[in-house]
Every structure is written in structure tokens, then in C-alpha cells.
Amino acid sequence: MNDLLADADICVKCGLCLPHCPTYTKTQNENESPRGRIALIQAWAGGHLETSKNLVEHIDNCLLCRSCERVCPAVVPYGRLIDNFRGQIKAHKKFSLAGTLLKEVSHNKISNRLAQSGLSFYQSSGLQKMARFFKLPELLHLDKVDRLLSAQSDSPPLKPSYFTEISPVKGNVGLFIGCMGSLLDHQTVDAAIKVLTAAGFNVHLPEQQTCCGALDRHDGDIEKAEQLAATNCSAFADKSLDAIVTIASGCGGQMKEYQQAEFAGKVVDISQFLIKSGCDLSDQLLPLAASVCLHTPCSLKNVMREEQGAVKLLQQIPGIKIRPLPATIQCCGSAGSYMLDHPQMAQALLSDLLNVALEDQPEYLVSSNIGCALHISAGLRERGVALEVLHPAALIARQLK
Predict the structure, then answer these.
(1) Contact 313/275 with Cβ under 8 angstroms?
(2) Do 346 and 249 sit in the same domain of this protein?
(3) Hey, which residues does 173 pair with through a beta bridge?
(4) Bridge partners of 174?
(5) Structural domains counted in the chain
(6) Which of 115, 228, 233, 268 has the fewest Cβ atoms within 10 angstroms?
(7) With the CA atoms of 203, 209, 210 and 212 taken in that order, what torsion angle do they form, in degrees rounded to the nearest 10?
(8) Taking the model in full, what pTM does it have?
């Protein structure tokens, strides 16, 4: 309680955060703003407000995009405040079946492997089409998960745990692929290895690595999040690693805030890492006369603070035209498991993004976070729009000569 009050008391209630909050922008409800949520937590921690369904819902409706943190003149640690409050009231929360299954697959390697095999069979055998025809996902309350799955299965990732550079060696990096990278984003994993080795780096994929812990921390399970953090720190303990490169900014944002400073200090988004390392791949890249809509995930912009890397990396492709989404598009609505538990708000925010993204009819849409990419891809399929969504590293890998 003292920690909650100490963090909440930093807020001076100036309201500068309000126009930057997606849920406040949509609802115009003070309880759905950062200032309002801080006031609620302040009252609760001070014993002036009882735990109630309404209180829990107002805090849970937060996307934790952390746009408010970026503009806060008082530097309120808003993300920490929300996570810690959720930890205090987790006994009063109800978790969806989809969210529970997601965490099971994220934490357990056996479950993850079974999910990979089952998903491949589900998509390639025709079961997916049949299940959707008979609306089985809706009947099983798994439709929010099923909408994220494409119509075809992804190829399995490369098996080795170590990949050597193919140009003069510049260093060694550990690649964090996360639980969803191994399950739903093999293309980006393989592309990251291809690009990093082409840039001159030896790539290590420790088999012991596990979920980053973001899902648990944001659900209030601080103890489980710390256990996962300890496992990852052990997996990447090799002193020869110059960096721990991430391909999902949601994971990167979580790991940059690990309490283990030596580990956290090495975490960097792959695009940012390549640019900061002085890698110029332009001579190795084929031209691409295409228009690309660039989506910058909240975690990359507001937590990792590394949003310029993707733009600068993609600009190395000759002939490419990059159009970033405007600042008025605050969040896509994915936010980890938020899109599963708060589909109405998630869809409303996604609709705003797609309306703007499709205005100039781009050939590609790129995003540096797997959750955002899945959510956006699902929205495009629901609109009947055939626009490919991929990671910046995947587009770079395609253009390598």
C-alpha cells in the first residue's frame, strides 16, 4: 500500500496525459484516463474506496500503452503503479479461457510444442475451415483467438541454436524469440537470423529462454513474472553476448525493465540494434518500388524508446516509400492479451488505425510487435483486404541479394 501511495502521490493531476490516452479519447470518461485511474488507486490504497467490480474494471480497461508516461512532466511511474495495483487485487479478477490458454502455451515448452503441432494440423488439414463454418470457435469461446490465425500454417523455425555470420565478424548477439515467435511468427525468427548474420553477427538462440513475463506482470502475477525473468537472465548469461536482440517490442519493453540491470542493459530492438551498430545493408539489398505503411507499436515508442530504428533500417532499401502512421493513431488495441479480454475497445482502436492506414493503399504494412501484427492482420482479413503485414526485419530479409 505504501508503494502504491508513493507512486500515486507523484501525480499532480495536471491532465496533460488525457489527450494521449486511447481509452479516455474514446470514452471521455475521467475514470478511463490516467489521471482518473491514479486517483482511484490513490483512494483505494488510502482506505477511502472499497474494492468493487467498477474499480477493477476501470483499471483493467487500461491498455498500458504508457503514452501518458512519455508526456508526464512529473514522471509518474504509471506502468509500475498499474501492475502493482493489479497484483494487490488479482484475487478479484476473472480471467478468460483464451487468456488462460495463452499463458499456458507461453510458460510451458511442452504445451508450446504441442500447440505448434496442433496448430499446423488445424490449419493445413481443413479443420480450420470446417470449424469456422460450423462456428465452433464461438461455441467454445475461442473466437477471439481463432480470428488471429491466418488460413495457412507458418513453416517451422530453424532448429540450430547457433548461427555464424556470413561477412566480417562484428560481434555476438543473443536472439530472444519469445513464446509467440516460436509459435506464430517463424517467418520473423528466420528473417532476423538471416539479417543479423548478413550484417556480420553470430547469433545465439538459447534453448532455455522462455516467456518474457509481460502477460503475467500485467495480470498482477508479479511472482511468476520474476520467475520467468530469472530463467531468461540465466539463459542469456553468456558474457560474450554484445546484445540481447528482440523481434517483438512487447517482449523487449518488458525485459528492459527487468531488475537484473546487466541483462536489461543489453536488451535492444533488432532494427535499433542494426542502426546503432552502424550496419549499412543498402549495397546488399534489392530495390523495392513499393509503398510501406509503418506502424510503431506503443511498447517500441513509449517503453523501449527506440522507434527511429525501423524507419532508418527500411530506408536502406532502394526505391522504398515509407509512410508512418500519424500521431493521432495512439494504439492498435492489441496490448498483449487486451484484444482477447476487451474486444470492443480493441476493435474500435483497430478500426481507427485501419481507416488511416488504407487511405493511400500501401503494398505492405510493417510492425515491430507480433501481437500488433496479428491483431492488424485479423482486422484486414475481416475487411476482406489483402494487405501483407510483416516485421521490418522480414522485409529486409526478402530484399537481401
Answers:
(1) yes
(2) no
(3) 203, 243
(4) 204, 244
(5) 4
(6) 233
(7) -60
(8) 0.91
